Amino acid sequence: MKEKTGIVDTLEERQPYITRKQEKGQAIPLACDNNSLAGAISQRACVYSGARVVLNPVTDAIHLVHGPIGCAGYTWDIRGAKSSGIETNRSSFSTDMKELDIVFGGEKKLSNAIDELMGLYCPPVIFVYSTCIVGIIGDDLEAICKNASKKHNIPVIPIKSEGFKGNKSDGYKAACDALKQLIKRPQETAEKKPEVNPEVRKPKINILGDFNVAGDVWLVKPLFEQMGIEVIVSLTGDSTTRSISGAAEADLNLVQCSGSMNYLAKWMQREYGIPYLSASFFGIEDISIALRKTAEYFDSEEMKKKAEEILETETNRIMPEISRVRERVKGKKAAIYMGGPAKALTLIKGFAELGMEVVIIGTQTGKKEDYEQISYSVRDGTVIVDDANPLELAELLVKQKADLMVAGVKERFIAYKLGVAFCDFNHDRVVEFEGFDGFVNFAREVDASINSPVWKAVRQRTLKPEAVESEREAVKGVNSGKPCVKQYKDISMGPDFLNTKPDAAVKSQA
Ligand code: SF4
């Protein structure tokens, strides 16, 4: 048997993607920003999925997936981005390509689908997503969309998101390219734009990279409005074709999800002269930084005073509840696995505010500089991983003795099967996590999951590496027909589990 060399027992080619925290100033020896290794069964989603996740919150758009029905499995329900008005985006549309379409081409089917949707919904925009098979058979999406656009007099935008043609980040880029087509050039050019003077006219901002999951952005916009700032649009949470079209009127872009939106922010800076700042609206420290640096940017004493007032009032209001939860969760160990690095970084601070320690941190789309920042922000011994697969995450949770995993829908069952508490930050949640009240919601969810009585009632590992080995031996024992109850004694389980016969015990862990 090959000797284990890495932090976890994984494919040799995956070892460079897993490392530990480095000292400040040291380059992080972590491979990242590459396409997923074939056969590694990455948790990362495909290009199409990356595009869909960014565009789906555009509430009045038709999102038409040109491909087999399986690709359309990504629906609004996977990530409930809320709308304050129209909810066309909650319906899923697909051309449902079948074998005959793949043999003879799906262009006619797509064209008919667009006509039918126009008749039914009269939308202001249609996004047409390309999928793997469309890339393979070569349907001319651009030509069909161009014709449909002329015929119906609305933008029908092809999203070049064939699943195989890169990674999730390429999907973000394809989505931003589509958004660029909806942003209209403002009346004044960048050179003519009047100087921002909060005493004379209300400064305007866009929030980039907030998808209004569970209504997040509705807890953030009022903070800026209280500071005398108008939020033109949040891209893309709770946005409409009309609000997006006015985005170039902004004086400043605040970028929260940098992985998905830095590309658009840079383009808006080049094209319209709109500068951008990174910001996070999660956790007391990061919200404070976001409000203060926005006020600083506009250089208004009035705005700075208002920001301080908001921070004092809101912090005093939520601290009693945060302190109560902190007493219940302090010292617990957290694992973070996010799509993008910005959320991972802000979560480190959020957990510190709850007195918790981060022992694993990973992302699907982080770049070298993101991981360097992550490395400086975590404690010694923390494992940092890029583009992980379920087996790596499972082994890390056990080895690092995590008490809680915070991640998205695909990671939930990895944690639950190990008896580890879980908090969904990205997809399935129904309460806001941003803003001051959102942080209280997050703290309560972390507490509820870590301290849930369910962990006393279900099979739970001791979270020792030996336990995993022991379990592997037990499975081998069953496969070879030998009794294996003895080995399971190393694993802390409920009495019912210990009383089951070996075969049943093994089946129950599947
Ligand atoms: S686009 Fe390709 S990889 Fe993505 S869901 Fe469809 S078939 Fe799967």
Automatic annotation (TrEMBL):
InterPro entries: Nase/OxRdtase_comp1, Nase_comp1_CS, NifE, NifE-like. Residues 46-450 form the Nitrogenase/oxidoreductase component domain. Pathway: Cofactor biosynthesis; Fe-Mo cofactor biosynthesis. It comes from the Archaea. Keywords: Nitrogen fixation. The keyword Translocase does not apply. Belongs to the NifD/NifK/NifE/NifN family. This protein may play a role in the biosynthesis of the prosthetic group of nitrogenase (FeMo cofactor). This is Nitrogenase iron-molybdenum cofactor biosynthesis protein NifE.
